Amino acid sequence: MAGNTTAHNAKVMNRFDLTKRLVAQLKREEAVVGGIGNANFDLWAAGQRPQNFYMLGSMGLAIPIALGVALAQPKRHVFALEGDGSLLMQLGCLATVAMLRPQNLTMVIWDNGVYQITGGQPTASAEAADLVAIARGAGIANSNWAADEADFDALVAASLKGGAPTLIGARIDKGPPAGATERDPVKIRENFMRGLGVRK
Fold it and tell me: How far is 3 from 6, CA to CA, in rounded Å?
């Protein structure tokens, strides 16, 4: 049986390059929740913003936290940047997103088929699991693989217009992150709350 890497024609891209491309489109103080490990390391390296939240040690919770922010602040667009391993640990969140249908939520899934920061063990997406197909099955109709960098840019731009929750799957390489997040959870929380306007 063909593995997930051949289940679609998505180009294998670089996570940091795509992160920079996404951040470059943020013009209205959109919130971004970076999942644990390399997802938030690259978000940090792309330039610190008070609207960024950097997950530390809470695997699988980037989408649930982003969902909460999206529901609490419906006029602010919210992005969740999550790895394949973390999403696999919390697949139920996709059904919850589909049920609640926040129009201002975009989920970006970085899929390299491995648990990269714990030694490169293969994830289920390295074999048969297609995370975009799973999201569609959960009820998130606006779920697509980014075919290449230009398509990724277009999918992000379309998601910013709102109207329905969006999931963008991106096949990425196994390259190292571009930096490392400052590991101060209180500072991260306080900066984010100020960035959302709920703390002075």
Answer: 6
Looking at residues 28-38, what average pLDDT do you find? 95
**Under 8 Å between Cβ of 107 and 98:** no
In a domain, 93, yes or no: yes
pTM of the model: 0.93
Q: What is the mean pLDDT of residues 100-111?
A: 98
Residue 197: inside a domain, yes or no? no
12: nearest Cα among 188, 175, 164, 186: 175
Q: Which two tokens stand for residue 185?
A: 């959870």
Residue 26: pLDDT band with limits 50, 70, 90: very high
Tell me the β-bridge partners of 121.
115
pLDDT-based confidence at 8, cuts 50/70/90? low
The CATH number of the domain holding residue 56 is: 3.40.50.970
Residues 190 and 52: beta-carbon distance below 8 Å: no
Q: Say which residues have a Cβ less than 8 Å from residue 124's Cβ, sequence separation at least 6.
A: 88
